Amino acid sequence: MARTRIPTPHGPAFLHLYHNNRDSKEHMAIVVDPAQFQGPPNPDSPPHIRSKTLDAVWSDNETEMDRITRGAYVGRLSADSQHASNPIHAHTHWTGINDLIPSPLIRIHSECFTGETVGSMRCDCGEQLDEAIRLISQPIPVPSQSPLDPPKEIPGRGAVVYMRQEGRGIGLLSKIRAYNLQDLGHDTVTANLMLGHQADERGYEIAVAILRDLGLGSKDELGEGVRVLTNNPDKVKALEDEGLRVVERVPMIPRSWRSRNAMLAVPALPADRQSPKDDRIPGATLIGGNAVYGEDLDKYLRTKVLRMGHMLPLWLEDPEQ
């Protein structure tokens, strides 16, 4: 329905808002592809990540300004530069595929009001959203194909599909009630079941449709597979069952687990966030926040590993190992 540029602490991104015919929610895609500001891709560069439906002509009466206003433009908008996209040329297959360039990095991320907005440290959802955008935004090194050519870098590229599936699909009301059951001693899975829900009620049909619209991961046409940021093998299988071509699963290790030893020595902030001028308390509420940690988070992550099969190294909990 619409697309716009958003600056983030990790670099520029494009926010896409989608409507669909499966539910009444507005899902989103955060596309990282700063190469789009540099003009059309050359034959040796990956294609731009663009929405086919957004670039399409919606009606015979649509003006160029209508298209630009909803985000169907190329390059970067300014008072002196406005160029509506051409549906015929906006999407081309990448015929000069370079095997040295990895597939786009993507994440399917479920909305979490408590972790992303309020800063609850019962989960690491806010941190995961920030980390996903950070990792996707990292420059991609491309080895040289000849000893005479120096190695180069291309801008990071990929997408976070932001799904409105609070509490693994059970909704905010049930999620809050589940928190009370957790305080009574139940884990997240048992709490969901006690409320009459499944352990995980999320679906991925809409998410895969969004990725297809962006030209990512399609099995039935020439295009790129995707690398998926997740610790959940069931999510990878569900995405593949929906027709997404996944070429690699990329793990997401919680920041607090990666720096556990340093955190024990300096409990105020993780070591990689220490700064004499940084007086923020721990927590990842907004993009660019700190690491989340604590007893509630450890219980949450252990349940993911032990009851839901997430692939996280529990040995990192013990700093002596």
TrEMBL record:
> InterPro entries of this UniProt entry?
GTP_cyclohydro_II, RibA, RibA-like_sf
Catalysed reactions, semicolon-separated: GTP + 4 H2O = 2,5-diamino-6-hydroxy-4-(5-phosphoribosylamino)-pyrimidine + formate + 2 phosphate + 3 H(+)
What family is this? Belongs to the GTP cyclohydrolase II family.
What is the uppermost EC class here?
Answer: hydrolase
The pathway noted for it is: Cofactor biosynthesis; riboflavin biosynthesis
Please give one Gene Ontology molecular function term for this protein.
GTP binding
Biological processes annotated in GO: riboflavin biosynthetic process
Domain GTP cyclohydrolase II span(s) in chain numbering: 101-251
Species annotation? Tetrapyrgos nigripes
Give the superkingdom in one word.
Answer: Eukaryota
**Swiss-Prot/TrEMBL keywords:** GTP-binding, Hydrolase, Nucleotide-binding, Riboflavin biosynthesis
- What EC numbers are recorded for this enzyme? 3.5.4.25
Q: Does the keyword GTP-binding apply?
A: yes
Does the record carry Thylakoid as a key word?
no
Q: Which residues form a coiled coil?
A: none
Protein name (database record):
GTP cyclohydrolase II
